[in-house]
Structure formats: structure tokens, C-alpha cells
Predict the 3D structure of the following.
Amino acid sequence: MEIVSSSDIAEKLCRQARQSKQIISLVPTMGFFHAGHMSLIRWAKEQSTMLVVSLFVNPAQFGPDEDFDRYPQDLERDARLAEEAGVDLLFTPEARDIYPAGFSTWVEVESFSHFLCGSKRPGHFRGVSTIVCKLLNLIRPHMAVFGQKDWQQWIIIRKMVRDLNMEVDVPGRPTVREADGLAMSSRNAYLSGEDRNSAPHVYQGLLHVRELFHSGQTKIEVLENLLLKYYRDNLPQAEVDYVRIVDAQTLGTSRQAGPGSLAAVALKLGETRLIDNILLE
Ligand code: PAF
């Protein structure tokens, strides 16, 4: 495995790989690998002959009061895990290389970026779309793989790729969970012992709403209120950002839930913001 921090060198290696007919897949990450990352990496490995993983804690997607300065990092461990999983190129750029002085071009998928997580994190998805656009232009992979825990992010990237005619597939892979159901996230490392014990309720609430849907309740307003009630009863300490039931593909809202609906939640336990979602189907 090569570890490359220069974007010029990464670009050159990937160009050569494409010229020699390699099938390149990219897994964009911010590092501090957990089983969710590893499942994306292993799946991507099976789809390609050259596997690139980018590891970059992207300052542009953090708000001023967010956790950029304390985002967990362990490059040595990540590099070991990546090598064991058969990664060919670990791309670890520096912020000054990605955003040199004078950088002033941003990518924003307007229609999808200002609600759900976007309403609580202004500018977040602009930062995500911009870095992913840059990574896709540098690496030019045949496929870029995303986790469905960040469902809105995945939908936004797919829309960007369509709108900007970028020639890349963007498969989404299912959320990987701890044994108790908590969605894997690097931010779980921030949870206090007590919050970690109650955090599985985030997913339990989503299972509960899916059960209600399966037993015939399809009114979105009712389902959202019952989900909110579940969190008030079971996670009274949580600060709920949103509970929403939306169309999984368009993220649009309506009155009735259907098989293509997605229930999504974001809430804070202590200082830790957790997100999760479930397809009602
Ligand atoms: O999901 C993430 O880890 C990040 O948002 C991504 C896609 C690597 C962009 O920085």
C-alpha cells in the first residue's frame, strides 16, 4: 500500500492506473476507522482492481462551534487496517493542498442541502460536496462508495454527480451496527458511559416507528410524533434536532408514508450528535 499526501502524486498514480485499465474504486473517509468503514473498504475491494481510500478531516464541513479540533484521529492504526484490508493507495492530503490560499470555488447541491442535517449545520453539505467533487476529480474513480448511515450525504453526492455529469457510480452500502444496534460512527468515541448505554434507543426508536408503519399507521405526522414521544420517554436527556419521515430518494415530504419512505433522526446526547435512519419498507 502506498501512503500519499501530495494530491499531484495521487492524481498521477491514479491516471497511470486508469491508463493501464485498472478499475478504480474510492472510499472517501475522515479516518478513525471502525467496522462501518472497514465494510465499505472490503466491499469496494471486491469491486475493483485498484482501491483508493482517502483520509482527510475536511475543515470545510465543520461549523465554527463543531468538533473539527477534537475529531478523533489515529493515522497509524488506520494505515495498518487499510493495509490489512488490501487498500492500494491511502490518500492523506493536507488542508493547505486541498484548499490552497485563494481557494474560492464551492459546490452546493441546493435542493437537498438546507433541510434535515443541513438546517442544523449550515454550510456542512457545501463542504462535503466540494471535497467529494475535488476527490472525484483527482482520483477519477469508476466508483465512489458511501455509507447509508449518512443517507442525506449519499443522496446529495448522487445528485451532484448527475447534475455535473461526472462519470462515476455512487453505490451506498448498509449501515453497520454495534451488537446493541447503535450505528457505527467515529463520533461514538465521544459518548460518556451513561450516554453510550442509552444510545441504542436511537435505533430502537426507528425500529418502533417501522413497526407502527407495518401495522398500518401511514400518517407521517402521527408517525413523527410517536417517534418523538419514543425519544422523550426513552432518551429524556437527548436534545432532538429532528425526526422526519421523507421520501428516501428525493428527501421530499408528504402526508402519507409508503414503502419508499425513510425515517431519519438526529439528536444530541451530551455533546455528541448522533444520526441514524431506517427504510420503512
Ligand atoms: O462521511 C464522511 O466521512 C465525510 O463526510 C466525507 C464523505 C469523507 C467527506 O469529507
About this structure: The first strand starts at residue 2 and ends at 4. The CA atoms of residues 9 and 76 lie 21 Å apart.
